[in-house]
Design goal:
single chain; 65 residues; mainly alpha; membrane
């Protein structure tokens, strides 16, 4: 249950963070945008590693929608 919630939050952030990064660059908040790029990359990397080491089946959560 807890891991499923984390995966849904991660997927939501993967979808929404690029838009927030783009808007931060447009408004001139480059430091904020760089922090968000780092956060986005960390989330993606974590989900990929969880999938690679078979700790979580991310596809199961993706197709649940």
């Amino acid at each position: 249950m807890f891991m499923g919630t984390l995966i849904y939050v991660g997927i939501f952030l993967i979808i929404t963070l690029p838009f927030r990064i783009y808007s931060a660059f447009r408004k001139g908040y480059k430091e904020t945008a760089i922090r968000r790029v780092f956060l986005w990359g960390l989330i993606v990397l974590t989900l990929i590693l969880l999938e690679k080491f078979k700790l979580v089946n991310v596809e199961e959560y993706l197709f649940f929608w």
